[in-house]
Amino acid sequence: MDVLKSLALAAALSLVGGTALAHITVWPRQSVQGAREKYVVRIPNERRAPTVRVEATFPAQVKVSAFEDKPGWKVEPRRDASGAIVGAVWTGSLPPDHFAEFGLLAMNPASGSALTWRFVQVYADGTRVEWAGPKGSATPAPQVELQPGSSSAPHH
Predict the structure, then answer these.
(1) What is the architecture of the domain spanning 24-147?
(2) Model pLDDT, residue 149
(3) Comparing 69 with 6, which gets the higher pLDDT?
(4) pLDDT tens-digit profile of 67-96?
(5) What are the sequence ranges of the domains in the chain?
(6) N-terminal to C-terminal alpha carbon distance within the chain
């Protein structure tokens, strides 16, 4: 009987763990100061309604230069007064129990230890989830750790 209780507890914990990991993330999780990088924004759909919009605010120090084409999705860059890309809005349809990845090219800042990305995920039923909270919260903002750069550092 104790074995069955242990197995049931392990199964329940694995389900909770899987749900806790289903947040918007940015890959790679580590990069190098001053590097050119291809970042990938991974969007899971955790709800019963399709995701229809993703609004992004990029870290102020990151210089985004291009977006990867994603069939079925439209991307609209958001620019500041100088014309620099400071965010983006992706619109399309992501069914429940699916995920999508959106690529972008960027240049990391020459200094700093972390990049914080903020997102709002909008569902067809009108629900909005802001992925802008602190690490460990229910809706954390994705972060990329920056390592010191060097002349021999690889650039992606």
Answers:
(1) Sandwich (2.60)
(2) 84
(3) 69
(4) 999 999 999 999 999 999 999 999 999 999
(5) 24-147
(6) 53
pLDDT band at 156 (very low <50, low <70, confident <90, very high): low
Structure token pair of residue 124: 């067809």
Q: Which residue matches tokens 């050119």?
A: 36
Q: Please determine, for residue 12, whether its predicted confidence score (pLDDT) is greater than 90.
A: no
User: How far, in Å, CA of 142 to CA of 16, rounded?
Assistant: 20
Q: Using H for helix, E for strand and C for coil, what is the string for the chain?
A: CHHHHHHHHHHHHHHHHHHHCCCCEEECCEEECCCEEEEEEEEECCCCCCEEEEEEECCCCCEEEEECCCCCCEEEEEECCCCCEEEEEEEEEECCCCEEEEEEEEECCCCCCEEECEEEEEECCCCEEEECECCCCCCECCEEEEECCCCCCCCC
Could you give phi then psi for residue 2, rounded to 5 degrees?
A: -65, -35
